[in-house]
Design brief:
Distance between the termini: 57 Å
Strand content: 15-25%
Number of strands: 10
CATH class: Alpha Beta
CATH topology: Rossmann fold
CATH superfamily: Alpha/Beta hydrolase fold, catalytic domain
Radius of gyration: 18 Å
Number of helices: 8
Length: about 300
């Protein structure tokens, strides 16, 4: 009984801590105030865990949280940020809030997406739930562009690890509007930023944990191919910035390499940075490695492609 009581107290503390982050950082808005299309009426108890890293589990009410730069500093660009976590958790602090604040430092709006994690209890089709949320986030940013001081033609998407898979899916499947949404607002991102991303679901390359969580225990060729995003790059795929480390033991560096090689076929303005050391999950960079340089290189790239100043 004492152990259960302590767990309840810890949960309350973490929840209050998480909520206070939202209140101090900017508005948090529901993506689907009236419920997402295809959702099942089963609300999960959202769990926030802190063990060196703030993690969120069991998301049933997806949101975007706004981090807007000072008006005099704003460039008009905005980035929807998809934290990673294998489609099982969201590492929402170092792959979300910290990233948004970094973007604000050079005048770019950061929109942190707390997307639903694939779960048969809350979705009729869990394979499209995260993408539906990502598309809705892009849609909402464009619909509120004037209010948030954003240029609707400078809206990109960014993702880390499995969040990188979601961002890559949004950047290659924008003509596939999931959820039966009829709104005509474009959900094509103007640029992609993929940091140690899961790109492929092919065996030997992709991250099998992310694959299992999103599409289940299946070897269905069509479904695996659908979410192997390197296979869906076309001349319409937006410019892309990629970061990966050679010694990444969680998500092989071939994920980024294959995506970049496919971009080359269409001469898409893109840039890739591969680091000797860094491993996985380092957010803005890992101390003692050259991965600390990627944020500066990314900011310079955004300026080069005309998305920042």
């Amino acid at each position: 009984m004492k152990i259960i009581f302590k767990l309840i107290i810890i949960t309350i503390i973490l929840t209050n801590s998480f909520n206070s982050i939202g209140q101090n950082s900017g508005d948090s808005l529901f993506l689907w105030p009236d419920g997402a299309p295809g959702s099942i009426d089963f609300e999960l108890n959202e769990i926030h865990q802190v063990n060196g890293i703030l993690r969120v589990r069991q998301v049933s009410q997806p949101t975007i949280q706004l981090f807007l730069p000072e008006k005099e500093k704003a460039t008009g660009a905005a980035v929807v940020i998809c934290p990673g976590g294998g489609y099982g958790i969201l590492a929402i602090d170092h792959e979300g809030f910290q990233i948004a604040k970094w973007l604000n430092s050079f005048g770019v709006a950061g929109i942190v997406l707390k997307y639903r994690l694939p779960d048969d209890r809350i979705m009729e089709d869990k394979t499209i739930g995260p993408l539906m949320d990502a598309q809705q986030a892009i849609r909402m940013v464009r619909q509120n562009a004037d209010k948030w001081n954003i240029d609707p033609e400078k809206v990109g998407i960014m993702g880390f690890s499995a969040g990188g898979h979601l961002a890559a899916t949004a950047g290659t499947h924008f003509n596939d509007i999931v959820g039966g949404i009829t709104d005509k607002t474009s959900v094509r991102p103007d640029f992609n930023i993929l940091i140690y991303p899961v790109v492929s679901f092919k065996e030997g390359v992709g991250h099998m944990g992310s694959r299992r969580n999103l599409i289940g225990q299946t070897n269905d060729f069509n479904l695996v191919s659908k979410y192997s995003n390197e296979l869906h790059i076309t001349e319409a795929t937006p410019p892309t910035f990629l970061v990966h480390s050679r010694d990444d033991k969680a998500v092989p560096v071939q994920n980024s390499i294959r995506f970049y090689e496919a971009l080359l076929k269409y001469d898409t303005p893109s840039e890739m940075h591969l680091y000797n050391k860094g491993g996985h999950g380092y957010g803005l960079g890992r101390e003692g490695t050259t991965t600390l340089s990627w944020p500066d290189r990314c900011a310079a790239w955004l300026k080069e492609i005309g998305m920042a100043e």
